[in-house]
């Protein structure tokens, strides 16, 4: 559905994105994570056709996105900062969306607003940050998009509303086959709802996999050796080791490619005890960033 091929984006003389290659299947949820300034928002602005890429291509069902109004009709986009017409009342913004999007549904908005309670008589400038985010999300769900692109969609929202929004997004995917591309600092949300995830750093994709594959391959092992060994030195030959921490006789080894063969290598080195500790997506992200910082 979404194909990014060798995408690079330069602003002034600086490359913000370099050689990005991504594929997102229809009806899946794809998460992009990274530090502030890593290039997430620039990537999303290229994907929505706000920015024109300098190199490569971005295709949706085989069609270029930039300057393509027909394709853009199918896309809902929620920015991390929603700069709407501040003097408009919410009900006036609804009229604007009706004229802009062919499939906009007032009935869908009204149905969702029973839960989100947006005051349609209020002007945008009178709303809190969280309420503006609610408006943006409801408007973009109401255009009945084929693709929903979300840049920090839960920013400023309370926990109850966050949970409700995640539930609605999952329902859109299940009931209508909507494709979702999401960026968020709340990695627990990404871990819970995404099928696939990519880590971006300095404008480059450093890791990409399904959530399940990441959990199966990236592991933290608690290891005790029979005798004192120079663990860091002995493990330096194993390319799949991200980090080693030693506390007393206990060694915490993080690997990005866990397998039974990897365990066997540890036993061959003299391991007496090995316990696997599952890691959260947040833990994985932190270790990957640390590894990249070390290699730079």
From TrEMBL:
CDD domains named in the record: ABC_DR_subfamily_A
Origin species: Clostridium tagluense
Lineage: superkingdom: Bacteria
Name of the protein in question: ABC transporter ATP-binding protein
Family affiliation: Belongs to the ABC transporter superfamily.
Limits of the ABC transporter domain: 2-227
Pfam families, alphabetized: ABC_tran
Keyword Nucleotidyltransferase in annotation: no
Molecular function GO terms recorded: ATP binding; ATP hydrolysis activity
Keywords, comma-separated and alphabetical: ATP-binding, Nucleotide-binding, Transport
